[in-house]
Design brief:
By secondary structure, the protein is an alpha/beta fold. The chain has 14 helices and 16 strands.
């Protein structure tokens, strides 16, 4: 039976972090505690936003994984952006002009593809870039993007380190920090009666951040951590890592990784600690309908995986996305990519200018500033043109930002595999996203 939980108490998830996030007065406290550097960055955005407009035609780039170890996330993300652009242009475009769209690959951290994509798009005058999917990739290019006065907006970055990264007020994301996903993984394990957990993660900002949040919350809930292990995702073999996990005697294992998870789980099966032997937990970076297709039938049955989703049912939107791109097999982060595109376009319209700094200043205003709620680009633009403040409600629900450009409130979907290629939501958690 599907269950939806609104996270209000923190007995399991770590009282200190989530109790702080749950208080309605926190926005005042956290704003007051913002660092001088962040305050200065916000002031810079506001100051520059008053300058004369330098661009009235929105040029939007994407830096999403067409190749690399998150390539399975590329198709739904590209489809989400392109579906939004189709609807935006059908409603008259941005400031009376169609959006100029420049598609780009992000690759992964083993290549220089993302940097090449950014260089090319900056040379073509982009005002905003959607991407990357990988937090590690974003960290390789965020300075280059934001120092050029361009908005970087990720639909899928979740590493906690990005919350307070110095970005000149130009970096935004609409997937919650892994401080929340880690808490949900821990709660799911505790709810299932797991008392001894091993956590293994790829050694990069994403893996390290999510592993730390999972461990913290599981231990605070009274669980015993049998092993916390970071691995090199490019390692030729995971035999030694799996042996360490096995020796620690866990009841369940959380594997935090990307496409290398397939090799890791294969080694777990070989050593007798695979999903048929222990409860396996996956995460957004490896929750896939295609990655485990070649495993023996039934191997993944009962495996649980978490992924950021939306506070509303995404079934209808995913059907729209599939109609737009019938080749889709995964839908993760497609809805977030759609909403990212919409709020960038609305911010440019609100600002009356497609300049990146002005878009950044207007993003919080169109995404949740106490205005009238609207759900389509055409309706939102009509309200803006009438002088009405708006609050865009996306296909994922609200997209309000906190003072760091992070999603204020997030939803984590909990899923269970019924075969190697099928999983379905069994629950969800919606909460104000705790700060790191």
């Amino acid at each position: 039976m599907k269950r939806t939980m609104v996270l209000k108490t923190v007995a399991v998830l770590g009282a200190a972090s989530l109790a702080l996030a749950a208080c309605s007065s926190d926005s005042e406290d956290t704003t007051a505690s913002a660092t001088a550097e962040e305050t200065s960055a916000e002031a810079t955005v506001e100051e520059e936003a008053t300058d004369e407009c330098t661009s009235t035609s929105l040029v939007l780039g994407t830096m999403l994984p067409a190749t690399g170890d998150l390539a399975f996330l590329g198709p739904p993300e590209f489809a989400g952006v392109e579906l939004a652009l189709e609807e935006i242009d059908a409603a008259g475009g941005v400031l009376g002009s169609p959006v100029t769209y420049i598609e780009g690959d992000s690759g992964d951290t083993t290549t220089d593809i993302a940097s090449q994509t950014v260089d090319s798009q900056l040379a073509q005058g982009v005002n905003a870039i959607i991407g990357a999917a990988s937090s590690g990739v974003s960290l390789t290019v965020i300075d280059k993007i934001t120092s050029n006065g361009v908005v970087q907006f990720s639909p899928a970055n979740t590493a906690p380190v990005l919350t307070t990264y110095p970005d000149n007020g130009l970096y935004f994301r609409n997937s919650p920090s892994d401080v929340l996903q880690g808490a949900v993984i821990a709660q799911s394990a505790v709810d299932a009666g797991i008392t001894k957990l091993a956590v293994v993660a790829r050694q990069d900002p994403y893996g390290e951040g999510l592993a730390a949040a999972t461990v913290k919350n599981f231990v605070e809930a009274g669980g015993t951590l049998t092993k916390e292990l970071l691995y090199d995702p490019a390692a030729p073999s995971f035999e030694a890592e799996v042996a360490e996990i096995k020796a620690s005697g866990p009841e369940a294992v959380a594997v935090i990784g990307f496409e290398e998870t397939v090799k890791f789980v294969q080694e777990m099966i070989k050593q007798g600690v695979g999903p048929g032997d222990l409860q396996l937990y996956l995460v957004d970076g490896n929750l896939s309908t295609t990655a485990f297709a070649d495993f023996p039938a039934g191997t993944m049955d009962g495996t649980v995986g978490t992924v950021p989703s939306g506070s509303v049912d995404l079934t209808t939107f995913n059907e729209r996305l599939l109609a737009f791109d019938p080749a889709l097999t995964d839908f993760s982060y497609g809805p977030q990519s759609y909403d990212a595109t919409m709020v960038i376009a609305l911010a440019a319209h609100k600002a009356g200018c497609a300049d990146g700094v002005k878009i950044a200043a207007a993003l919080p205003e169109v995404a949740g500033n106490g205005g009238e709620k609207c759900t389509t680009y055409a309706d939102c633009v009509a309200l803006l043109d009438a002088g009405t403040e708006i609050d865009y409600e996306g296909v994922t629900g609200g997209v309000d930002f906190n003072e760091y450009g992070d999603l204020l409130e997030g939803t984590i979907s909990i899923n269970e595999y019924s075969s190697n290629t099928e999983f379905a939501e069994i629950g969800s958690v919606t909460a104000v996203v705790p700060l790191p």
